[in-house]
Specification:
- By secondary structure, the chain is of the alpha/beta class.
- It folds into two domains: 203 residues, 3-Layer(bba) Sandwich (FAD/NAD(P)-binding domain), CATH 3.50.50; 224 residues, FAD/NAD(P)-binding domain, CATH 3.50.50.
- The protein is 34% helix and 16% strand.
- It has 19 helices and 21 strands.
- The strands form six sheets. Strands 2, 3, 4, 5, 6, 7 and 19 form a seven-stranded mixed sheet that branches. A five-stranded parallel sheet has the order 9-18-10-11-14, covered by helices on one side.
- Helix 8 links the parallel strand 10 and strand 11.
- It binds NADPH dihydro-nicotinamide-adenine-dinucleotide phosphate (NDP).
- NADPH dihydro-nicotinamide-adenine-dinucleotide phosphate binds next to helix 8.
- The site of NADPH dihydro-nicotinamide-adenine-dinucleotide phosphate has 28 residues, from helix 8.
Length: 593
């Protein structure tokens, strides 16, 4: 028997053919353009349903640092600035409180899929013990408020405030920032920490604006309509037919809660998620109290090692994530034999997840439709113990669109393959913009040196050093995944970036530096690093079904530059550490005071 006739090779050939077939079904010409913003007809969808916008006087103020964004990233920069001895800062956020993602996402069942001990920031510093191994959204939001109180951030924050413009005044050496509340803030430094999953998107389904029932996006859940709360039954849905479009990480958490509350539930699926076992449970208090100082940073690092193929000696977290992601199967292997072994490992992991569907979902046809046919790095793997069983309930209906998506929406409901599904409530679990242009996601277009706009200088995509500094935008620092790190545990990335940015500002203050920005040459060198890393996973990535990880496999001319660092987050962190250790800000243009 030759190698190509071995059972493993045949299995792989079949799997590759099936993956390819499923991918091709889903490829679309419009790529990222298939989605639309919460604007125009959908402006109402973007309103804050959680806290009223209180009137206040406009603020005119000069500060050392302005932080745009008061989610994890903004809060962590603030904490590190205080550590650097810098307390003259102001934080702005569109939301009505701290928390970012965890302010907006209050949908029923919302929780973090990464272990709370590695995901909740500053546990040692705040002395907080999470209640559960995987924390629910209300607990995470409360923790954000705790951080705000512990570090005195509330008195330095303006909420329900959106930046309208930010312009560099070279003579004054300051950014001039205006807001939708009439504020005018001048600042030496601006940190754009506007969030990674902050801009909700809607599918551009024909007729979507004509729906006559109630509709909202999951990040603006209307409990006034549904009744109940994040952890309660939604009594008002008892006589309602509810539809949900999308079956990603959000929908996986929402669907079981809808199943427990609504009369009928219709789940409109384009691509099934891979859903592993969760096994949540209360924190073991004795274990938690026994942890030695410094445990959290160590555990965070250990988890990232385990999910980026760096295989730590001890798998401290040892959960579904570390099990599924233990082997890095997306980087190109050195030899064809090694490549076969790697592909087989990926296939087996996904087959385990497909078999799990077949074990749990009793109706065979439904089970088949819920099975994910793509590689494990193509979409974020989900972990949940109630999602798949929900499809065994007689009032929960999977409406699979065979990769095509919903055909249309009309006044009464949703149409798929000629069948109309009348609905009272339509929920969009359609996700967020992740890889679109940063100025679009920031919500303002910074105007840098000599009046150059970010949208002009970045007309072909992002230009940065480490995703943090950019030429012509002095003293502006970005915390976003564009040209920066990315990882399963967003907190790890945000903590490292926040630490880096605060250190940078601290050094500028200590060394009497007036301005700092990247040089165009250093931006190009960094771009080469990003391209080289991307090259290592290009083959895998190209074989994936579309999704936000790969900009919907669209033909976006800016995608070449709007990359993330696709290697291990630990390697990205290594670049930042070496750069700081080297001293002298290599690749940055610095002007003295
Ligand atoms: P996703 O982008 O992951 O999912 C959007 C869903 O909408 C997909 O299932 C997509 O299908 C579907 N969709 C889009 N257009 C159509 C259409 N026209 N017809 C039918 N279906 C359509 O968004 P989520 O909000 O689920 O998750 C986004 C990210 O947020 C996650 O990946 C994760 O990083 C984060 N998150 C994290 C959580 C956590 O626990 N930490 C919990 C929830 C979210 P298709 O796959 O075919 O594109």
């Amino acid at each position: 028997m030759t190698e190509s006739e071995s059972p493993e090779s045949q299995l792989l050939a079949e799997a590759r053919a099936r993956y390819q077939q499923e991918r091709e079904k889903r490829l679309r010409r419009d790529g990222l353009d298939q989605f639309q913003e919460l604007k125009g007809d959908f402006e109402e969808y973007d309103k804050d349903p959680f806290s009223p916008v209180e009137p206040r006087d406009a603020v005119t103020k000069d500060v050392e640092v302005l932080l745009v964004g008061a989610g994890f990233a903004g809060m962590l920069v603030a904490k590190h600035l205080l550590d650097e001895g810098i307390s003259d800062f102001l934080m702005l956020d569109k939301a009505g409180d701290f928390g970012g993602t965890w302010y907006w996402n209050r949908y029923p069942g919302c929780m973090c899929d990464v272990e709370s001990y590695t995901y909740l920031p500053l546990l040692e510093e705040t002395g907080y013990m999470p209640k559960m191994r995987y924390a629910g959204a209300p607990e995470i939001f409360e923790h954000c408020q705790r951080i705000g109180r512990t570090f005195g951030l509330y008195e330095r924050a303006l909420f329900h405030t959106v930046v309208d413009s930010a312009e560099w005044d070279d003579a004054a050496g300051r950014w001039v920032v205006t807001t939708d509340r009439g504020d005018r803030v001048t600042a030496r430094f601006v940190v754009a920490a506007g969030g990674i999953l902050a801009k909700a998107k809607l599918p551009g389904i024909p007729g979507i604006e004509t729906f006559g029932g109630k509709a909202f996006h999951t990040s603006r859940w209307d409990y006034g309509y549904t009744g109940g709360g994040p952890d309660e039954v939604m009594a008002n849905l008892a006589d309602k037919r509810v539809g949900i479009i999308g079956t990603g990480a959000t929908a996986v958490q929402v669907v079981p809660r809808l199943a427990a509350s609504a009369k009928e539930v219709f789940v409109f699926q384009r691509t099934p998620s891979a859903v592993g076992e969760r096994n949540n449970g209360p924190t073991d208090e004795a274990w938690f109290q026994s942890l030695e100082p410094g445990w959290q940073a160590e555990r965070i690092r250990n988890f990232t090692q385990a999910v980026t193929g760096k295989k730590p000696e001890v798998d401290q977290v040892h959960d579904g994530w570390t099990h599924v992601m233990w082997d890095d199967t997306q980087s190109r292997a050195a030899t064809p034999e090694e490549q076969t072994a790697v592909d087989l490992s990926d296939f087996e992991t996904m087959q385990e997840l497909r078999d799990r569907v077949a074990k749990i979902v009793t109706d065979r046809e439904t089970a088949e439709k819920l099975q994910p046919w793509y590689g494990k790095h193509c979409k974020r793997v989900c972990f949940h113990d109630e999602y798949l069983p929900a499809f065994n309930e007689p009032h929960v209906h999977l409406v699979d669109t065979d990769g095509q998506g919903v055909d249309s929406v009309n006044e009464r409901g949703v149409v798929v393959d000629g069948t109309e599904y009348p609905l009272d409530l339509l929920i969009f679990a359609s996700g967020f913009e992740v890889t679109t242009d940063l100025d679009r996601r920031l919500g303002f277009d910074p105007v840098g040196r000599d009046g150059v706009r970010m949208s002009e200088r970045w007309h072909d995509g992002a230009h940065t050093l480490h995703g943090v500094l950019s030429a012509e935008f002095p003293n502006m620092m970005f915390i976003s995944i564009v040209q920066a790190g990315f990882g399963t545990n967003f907190l790890h990335f945000l903590s490292e970036s926040a630490n880096h940015v605060a250190w940078l500002i601290g050094q500028c203050e200590a060394q009497g530096i007036r301005t700092i920005e990247a040089t165009p040459e250093a931006e190009e060198e960094w771009h080469m690093v990003l391209m080289k890393e991307a090259g290592k996973i290009a083959g895998y990535s190209m074989s994936c079904t579309p999704g936000y990880y790969n900009s919907e496999q669209g033909n976006n001319p800016k995608a070449r530059r709007n990359l993330t660092y696709t290697g291990s987050l630990l390697d990205y962190v290594g670049y930042l550490e070496r750069w700081r250790d080297e001293g002298g800000f290599p690749g940055a243009r610095v002007t003295p005071a």
